[in-house]
Amino acid sequence: MMHSSRRFIPYNSGFRFVILTSAILVFVLIVSGGVVSATNSAGACPDWPTCLGKWTPPFNQSPLIDYAHRAITLSAAPFLFASAMLAWKERRRSMLILASTIIALVLFIVQIGLGALVARSALSGIRPWLTPIHLMLSLFTLTTTLVASALTFYPVGITLKFLSPFSRLSLASVGMMFLLLVSGATAKVVGVDAACASWPLCDAASLLTHFHALFHLGHRLVVAASALVMLILFIQAWRTQRSQTPILVATTAATTLFFAQALLGAKMVEGFPAYLLSLHQVTATAVWGALVVQLVAVGAAARSTADERNEAASAVGRKGLARDLLMLTKPIVVALLLVTTFAGMVIGAQAWPTFSLAFWTLLGGFLAAGGSGAINQFIDREDDLRMQRTQKRPIPSGRLTPAEGLAFGVGIALASFYLMTAMVNFLAALLSLAGIIYYVLLYSIFLKKTTVQNIVIGGGAGAIPPLVGWAAATGGLNVPALFLFAIVFMWTPPHFWALALVRRNDYARAGVPMLPVVRGEVETRWQIFLYTVELVVITLLLPLFGLGGGVYLVGAAMLGGWLLLAAWKVWKTGGNKAAWKMYRFSSMYLAFLFVVLMIDRLI
Fold first, then answer.
1. Using CA atoms in the order 1, 313, 162, 298, what is the torsion angle rounded to 10 degrees?
2. Which of 235-244, 270-279, 326-335 is predicted least confidently?
């Protein structure tokens, strides 16, 4: 368990910011190095520190990428130096942070020197072997900066202790991951991937005719062993660390990223676009980073074998876990979002999608929206306890721990991005990721509790799914696709303000500045009617831009009249009954509108 007897004395926020920024910049540096490797830009600037004899690079892809990598290095240097200096001033409070920052600075300096050697064309014969060494130094630098960063979120002077079986398993997983990274870098140096083109194992012919295939086979065997270790780590974390939020979240993220990396690796063997090699390398680095953070969290918790046994015993016989995890995803909300996603596919392609494309797009969409909803419930867990409508949700009711809720949300949200990338296309994956970030960061964290415009601005998150569907089916976006975004964006405020009228006392108790709480019921009723009018006008304009014909226009007019009547009753009569009908009608309206538009595009 945590050091509960120790008084929590936090580190200075400026100190934490500098060290955390150092870790982020080192991670970005490794990412940019992966881009350099994936695009074969290493050595594009054969001199150092200049590029082709100039301080500014020529405007060609490879020199620009190589030069950008050096610019990020230059940006990270002052933060690493400042981290070491600030840690020196705090040395009496934490020698571990001081040691970590100094080691990071020394490794970084050595790494810069090695990078200069790699860049020089005269060393082209040994450059392939210097590159993985350069990567290993970068990983060690990232490790030490992450250790220092993680420690700043714990009480001053905390020590790391690894006493339990799970802590030893965590140490083993870090060691296994290091072996995996080394074997991957070695396999890349000694031979091309074509030497072992089959997956998961190399075929016999490749092993007999290509010496290089042995290295790739060895790497894949290490991957298999690492997968087993990661799976055991994941299972044990969900058994014995249910109350430990940093440990459970970091373990779940690391496991999800590990298997996502394996999926990308398998797809690249099948002829996946080569430019996504950088994403494969970025993901591997992220797995390493997550495991390092997890290891610090395990050491800081200093749990005993008895602690873990008691927690595992408390979970035995627990009923309804699957149902509670499903409820975290807000399945009713997700179902409506999936309708707009599927409609976006049909409307964009003007044809039914294949079963495979529809399945993976909808599964990815469910995981993205469900993961966002689960993270949102973790963020709102204390507010949910104050609201009658949400008191029975899994986290505030105590059926799930906050750690389980956040870990589950992070895990499936990450899985959604990689599934979309591997099985659909990269644009759809990026749009899905943008929706997650929009909903979790922009709406749930920054907007919901700070402004009365929370729903208006936050509506953009729910408007992204039809764009995901469009991009999945067509591989791109155009102006008509943006009208689908606009429809959902304008639909969101009147839909949720109607609910807010019914539950305004709940929102007031929770301190959420919804429109009825801040500006009153009368103003909210008027805004609902005003936004509904604007929504219906937008839907009727779609045929002017080539999106929808006569069938759609008739259907949109009838549905719009139905919704306008409900909004009119809210404005003129008021009361919870009219507002609740508006809330229910608006959900059906959006689903039917997209169905009508699909039918119109197919006939």
1. -60
2. 270-279
Q: Name residue, tokens 């994936």.
A: 38
CB 70 within 8 A of CB 45: yes
Give the residue ranges of DSSP H helices in 316-453.
321-328, 331-349, 355-379, 381-386, 402-423, 426-437
Distance CA(322)–CA(123), nearest Å, equals: 57
Cβ proximity of 72 and 29 under 8 Å: yes
Query: To which residue do tokens 């907007």 refer?
Result: 447
Per-residue pLDDT tens for 42-75? 667 776 667 777 777 667 777 787 788 888 888 9
- Are the CB atoms for 563 and 479 separated by under 8 Å? no
The answer to whether residues 27 and 76 touch, using CB atoms and an 8 Å cutoff, is no
Q: What is the pTM of this model?
A: 0.89
Q: Could you give the angle at which helices 95-119 and 127-151 cross, rounded to 10 degrees?
A: 160
> What gap in Å lies between CA 328 and CA 138, rounded to an integer?
38
Count CB atoms within 10 A of the CB of residue 291. Answer: 29
Using an 8 Å Cβ cutoff, are 40 and 176 in contact?
no
Task: Please tell me whether residue 42 adopts helix, strand or coil conformation.
Answer: coil
Q: What is the tens place of the pLDDT at every residue in 94-130? A: 788 999 999 999 999 888 777 666 655 445 555 556 6
Instruction: Output the CA torsion 142→148→149→153 (10° steps).
Output: 150
Token pair recorded at residue 32: 């940019």
